[in-house]
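Entry 14: structure prediction run for Cation-transporting P-type ATPase N-terminal domain-containing protein. Input pasted below.
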Amino acid sequence: MAEEKNPDLPPDEDEDIIVEMIDAEPITYTTTTITSEPIIASYSSSTTIKSEPVITSSSSITTTTTTHSMPIIHTTTSEEITTHSLPIVHTTSSEEITTVEKTELDEKDTKANRIEFKAPLKPERPVKMTAPQLPPQMPSLRPPPSKEAPKSKHLDIEEHLLQPHEVAERYLSSINAEKPGDSKGLDAETAKRVLAEHGPNVLTPPKKRSAFLKYIDSLTSLFNLLLIFAGILEYILLGIDFEDNFPNTYLGAILIIVAFINAFIEFYQAQKSQALLESFLNMIPAKCTIIREGKLQPTAASELVVGEVVFVRMGDKVPADVYVFAASDLKVDNSSLTGESDPQERVPYNEHKNPLEATNLMFNGTLAIAGEGYGIVVRTGDHTVLGQIAGLTAGEDKTISPLAKEIDTFVKIIATIALLTAAIFFGIGFPVNNNNISLTLNFAIGIFVAWVPEGLPATVTILLTIAAKRMASENVLVKDLQGVETLGAITLLATDKTGTLTRNQMTVTNLWSCLNMYSALRNMQNVDNSVKPDSPGVSDIMHISALCSRAQFDRTDVPIEERQILGDATESGLVRFAAQNIPNFDQLKDIYPKIFEIPFNSDTKWHLSIHKKKHANGDLTLYIKGAPERVLRICSTILVGDGTQSVPLTEEHQAKYNETYEAMAGKGHRVLAFAQILLPSDQYPQDFAFDKKAKNYPDHDLCFVGLASLEDPPKHGVREAIGRCRSAGIKVMMVTGDHPLTAEAIGRKINLMLSDTKSMVAKRLNKPLEEIREDEYNAIVIHGEMIDKLSDDEWDNIFSKSEIIFARTSPRHKLEIVKRAQSMGHIVGVTGDGVNDSPALKKADLGIAMNQSGSDVSKEAAAMILLDDNFASTVRGIEQGRLIFANLKKSIQYTISHSTPEVIPNLLYVVVPLPLPLSAILILVIDLGFELFAALSFAWDKPETSEGLMKLPPRKPVTPASIDRFRRRAHRRAQEVVVDPESGEEIPPSKFSKLLHEFKQPFRKIWWTEAFEKTDDDVLVDGSLLSWAYLEIGMIEAIGAMTTYFVVLNYHSITPYDARELQRGVGGTTKYFTKEAQPYTNAFGTVIDANAQVMALAQAQSMYYFAVMIQQMFNLFACKTRFTLPIGKYMFSNVYTFYGIFAGAALATVIVYCPPFNIPFGTEWHTLPLFWLIPFAFGFFIIFYACIRMLVSRKLRPINWNREIQGLQMYPTIRTVRSMEKKR
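Run finished. Output tokens:
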């Protein structure tokens, strides 16, 4: 359930505000404004006004020239188009006209009120912002760049300007505006004919980039292009020397095929993610309710036609564009269409020309969040407003996750090293190989292939896919694969309370009336004060709960305990409580019919209803229930005694009220107040016509009846889940619309708040509040009214606390909280289920929506969805995210370890020179054969210890040093941003500009300074990993493989000296190591003929390949641990490790020992297995070295475990009010 917005804010303060501070010289700007409502321009005392602010009337044009010497904050309605000479910050509300030119206004009037959208004006020359103009403290608060809208777009809709009967006549429909339920609607024959003429009510899918082009995008990544280029070079060599290079055709084909396979894997996973996302963006509901031929019936939304009379009620998604001709407190959420998150009231009349602002139109795809109404369908399918402006909302640029950035950086570094090394050694090898371009180019390709881990992109994608499937089994659905790891990296989790931490199942616990407290639960200890229907004032509270409510039972033919309630959770709890205590509850609304009602809203914070209920002075009774502070404010008397008399409210009564309210809210209960007024017949006769607009109903001098507290118990597992989050170093905040006392009490039940707040410390130490230092308390509760007044330093102080609760917040506040946290370097996760949560969900690094209770808008905005609505699933997702990062790191560490034993033989081939120990095609077999199977097995690795992952700090912890570093870097990047001086929005750079910018970075001192700046971050590829792979294990494997290589050659009577001499003599007439080679006599007089030379080299290369594979088997186990020694039962915990080893070893055996494969791969099946012992010995040495390295590392760099948090309650949250009641 969406959190309630702060009721104490005026309506205009509920708008989203983006503030960009501009510290510049005084400037003059001209504002041309077209308004439909009066606009009052206001300025701070530090602002110099050259001309007076002008209050304009509807459709007037005002030009105001203003000079400022301070940052400008300009407030307008969204109907304005404002032209500035520098970026001016402005806020936007829902009163909006998009066109700006006066000629356009005239044109609009002459075109039957068709609305034309104009693109914003762009500057002739971009302005590069200098450092003084940028916000050094909060760089993340810059307004995000937005896409340019199409240059013209018409909304072909004008029915909002007509009367209901005119619309009905136009579409041949029959309506009854007085009694909408008696409307006839269309007849079946007309509906069938219109459906055949206009087609089904479905949206044409937006134009998408074709699957072929998407595949090409994947194919043209840096890795794949390099592989294709190397493959093409092999075929060019074939043209130069067909006979000698013919075997390399296999290598060229494999390189190109690998590129296409890598691209296909990436493309396939992207298509799957796209399909998943589209399943959550279905704009048309499956069913809707219509009146056809006078009968109310459900129908498929796709069969809806213009002229149909539809019935929409709370919770429905509007199936088409609908003209409202009857409504009862109907409110819709247009945020998915207009971005306005505040509920919009819908009534049968309209005063606006802009259809997007019309109060009698509901649009396709929006949500009815309150009330009910009847309307006529005026547009379907592509003709709806949603269909007409689809081009404006299609597609968003994909945000690159931290993981993707790290992988991309690593790939660029490796590709650069590979290309430079290949180019350098091509130049060195050319003279060494007697200017043989074919041979030297093959060598350069071998160097390149050795450096590049060709299977890495596919390995990472498959690992993330496996992890996403595993998270889905934990009821965590990830839309984007990168979100899998992002969840494990979050440092701050902001969550709402109702429906996320609590069950959203309200149960009445206590009543307070006539200055007496009553218990509503039989099992509580104060049995003597248990509630009874005849207790003073209790009957009045029950009647107000039952009558002043919109909740209702789904049926009346079964006992109350078996009924389901349709309505708000709070009202549902009150109605169920009243139904259990009022004998004639089902007839109560007929006995006391409702004649007037004002539903609950976030402005008044109360619900008012008037009923025909006689009393001594008249026939009508007014009831109100709502927020206690609001209800008490409009009361002048209080019910006392036996409940039949009232007395004026005094300070003593106020003190009793405050004491009771704090006691109820202090237990974490939601508290509501009840009031009534017996309307005198001389002022309000029975037939009095109450009018909401005229406000001719009493809203003051009411009689305060009492209070009721309702408990919304925490969900099972929430307390342990939050405890585990905090143990993992993740800061968990509650952001709620509830009262601070209620929020704090719930927080203390669920491990969210354990220590004392500032006021508690002051009370404990008996000191004034002002004398308490910041370091003396670590818990803070912030009221929503304070948020707008907080300075940057105060925000920093708040986030320095470990236990934070924001109460009485609005959606704008939640968005501001997310932005402030991100400006400090936090990776923010936000949970939410309501429409109003969607801005924060979208802004967060990872938005987490609820599946069952969440609105469609929140699901669309979020990157992750909890299928079971259980907060505990988030914690399981965090653990899985951390696990996949650890496994990815281990997989990369293992994968690139074979690069050194692949590169070194190629270098020795040129420098010494030696016969090539490892051919390029065998390098590919290593990378894409055994290595791929083994690397994928890491996906199923379990954590080293049961709680180890969740005892470590986040991989990018937020500390004072990291905050300073983050802001410095953000400030430097902001200086390079080019902005549009018209709108203040960032102008995206071209692809060429991006490439040029990246090319320049390594030549700047600041780039190297930041690259080697010491941090506590745990990145995917760090210095320790590279040292392990390239300098430590890589060198050990290279030595082991070269030893095996020389032993095999020596077995065939070729010593290292002979190998060098033979290689020096390659070419010319000797043709060593070929079938036409001349015989060679070694130092011992042994003659080695051509066949012996070819066999010796083939067996040596085969064993070099086999040696790398065997040593990598041991390295596979050595890479598995980070905190423990690579020995013991953990090595056997992942059965897929052995499957991977078996598959890779089987492939290697086939390549070496199956004669048909000897030809393409240049191997020799006569190779003795006895030579395996050498790499096995080096493999055991690798395990020994890993153990020594682990012990030394522990001594030099101890593991930075999180400190234990005192007071965490980690036992299950099973005992709840409801479960205890059932047990009794």
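Notes: The first strand starts at residue 27 and ends at 35. Will compare against the previous run tomorrow.
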